[in-house]
Structure formats: C-alpha cells, structure tokens
Specification:
The protein has 279 residues and is mainly beta. It has one domain. It is built from five helices and 22 strands. The strands form five sheets. Strands 3, 5, 7, 11, 12, 15, 16, 19 and 20 form a nine-stranded antiparallel beta sheet that branches. A six-stranded antiparallel beta sheet has the order 4-18-17-14-13-8, with no helix packed on it. A three-stranded antiparallel beta sheet has the order 21-1-22.
C-alpha cells in the first residue's frame, strides 16, 4: 500500500538536533558513568517473520526459523560504557556513539552482525540521548543501525534498533538495558546477493514481530526531569537525517497551510518509511 505525505515549504523554527530542551538559563549537566564491576545478563528473543511481500523471508531459513547465537549472555560494564558521552550532558542532549559499540550486543542474535555490507553500504551508526533523570537513576535512549550477513548470501537489514540504558545516578551501577527492533510494519529489508548459481539478485521487505535483548522488566522511577519519548526519538531521528527537521504534514493539512501562507507545496510519494532502513 502506498503512503502519501506532503511537505509544505514554510519558515521553520525548530530546536537543535543536539537538544530537545529550551531554557533561558543554562540547564544542569550530568556526568554519566558506569561503576567498575557492574554487569548485566541479557536474554535474546528473535521470532520468525510475520509478513513478507515477495517471499524471500519464507525462503531464508535464518528468518523463517531464527536460531540465536546465544540466548543468554553476561556483559560487563565496559560494553555499556561505550554508549556514554565523553563529558557531562544536559537533559535531551544527543551524542554520537562509536558505531562498533553495538556490535558486541547484536552478535548475541547472530555472528554476522556488521556495520558495512557490499550490497547495503555502511550503516548510519548509533546516537544516544539523555532522556530522564530522577533522584536515583538516569535513563539513556539510543538508536542504532546495523546489518546482518546471514547464510546463503542473504543480507538482513532491520529498520533500526531502539535501546534504553538505566543507571543508578550516584553509583553508576547498571540497573537495566533493553534493545529492540520497533514493531512498525514493515520493519526489515532483505537482499540475496547475485551469485554464479543465482545470477539475479532478490530483495524483499517484511515484518518481524519481535527481535530484542533485555535484562528483564523495565524499572519504574519517579522521574524529576524527563524528555517525552517522542521528543527524544525526534532528536535522535534528526541526528541521523537532516530532512527530519522539515515540517512534514499530512496531505490535507499541507494543502490548507499552503493556501494560508501562499507558499508552494512539495509532494513526496513513499512506499514504506523514509526515516529508517526498512526499505
């Protein structure tokens, strides 16, 4: 099904891609750290595909019946320390994470997790945002991209991974971690390379209902200061894609805005999502 979106060329007054918080006085900054000796056990889950448009998911054993590299794995604080900023950050601030940091975790799904593919190019990387602060804890929201080199010359590219890392505010002890493939449909892209045996490449898009790493239930805190999830996601999206700073509107609203402001209208027709790697 084709999805229609419209973009009105209007003057924009948007927050910076590195912050979603506006204050007249300098906001407090927080020094994030992970305590020595802290560790978490993560449990992986990867369910078979739920829908495939062209049948390549069905013909790929690794997607038809996924087999985890490791169902459970302990990770030291050093693995998670790679997701922290190099210095103190304000609430809502976004920072770039070393791209390879996420690979140690994603290879719990499959050993073929990588950042670059000859067919798909280089993944756009990983960014993180300080989302919430309480008297006892700090929560970081992150977004990561990677590809998986599967068996039978198949390249599996999830739309994105969204993660949450929760730390004790004073001690820096690890409290929780969760990383998942968002369930938006479609949420994965698959390509089979051309070979001498199969000279024609194939491609497909589909939906995977569950692919996640989790330390357990997400702890509940009385956050003193927080950025709403959607605002934090928008800040991360803008870090990846400059077009995310544009004023996107549904078609009917864009037509009305264009008439009101006497400004031209640009129309974009999409099959799938523009702001992730699902197609």
């Amino acid at each position: 099904m084709r999805l229609f979106f419209a973009l009105a060329c209007l003057p924009l007054c948007l927050p910076s891609a590195t912050s979603v918080v506006r204050q007249d006085t300098p906001p407090p900054r927080y020094d994030l750290r992970i305590a020595e000796g802290s560790a978490l056990e993560l449990r992986a889950a990867w369910e078979p595909y739920g829908r495939s448009k062209y049948g390549l998911f069905e013909s790929t054993p690794a997607l038809r019946s996924p087999v985890l590299a490791r169902e459970r794995e302990f990770y030291s604080g050093e693995v998670f320390r790679a997701f922290l900023p190099s210095g103190p950050v304000a609430l809502g601030e976004v920072w770039r994470v070393e791209s390879s940091a996420v690979l140690a975790l994603l290879r719990q799904f499959h050993a073929g997790a990588t950042l670059k593919s000859s067919e798909k190019g280089e993944a756009p990387g990983t960014y993180a945002c300080l989302r919430a602060v309480s008297a006892d804890a700090i929560e970081i929201l992150l977004r990561a991209h990677a590809v998986f080199e599967l068996e039978d010359d198949v390249i599996y590219k999830p739309a994105q991974f969204e993660g949450r890392l929760v730390l004790e505010r004073e001690s820096g002890a690890l409290r929780a971690f969760h990383l998942e493939l968002p369930t938006r449909d479609p949420n994965a892209d698959v390509t089979r390379r051309a070979t001498t045996r199969r000279p024609t490449p194939r491609a497909d898009i589909g939906w995977v209902p569950r692919m996640e790493l989790s330390s357990g239930d997400r702890p509940i805190f009385d956050w003193l200061h927080q950025v709403p999830d959607e605002e934090a996601r928008l800040a991360l999206r803008r870090a990846f894609y400059t077009f995310a700073a544009l004023d996107w509107l549904p078609f009917e609203q864009a037509v009305l805005r264009s008439r009101e402001t006497q400004k031209p209208l640009h129309l974009v027709v999409l099959l799938g999502a523009l702001d992730d790697d699902s197609c």
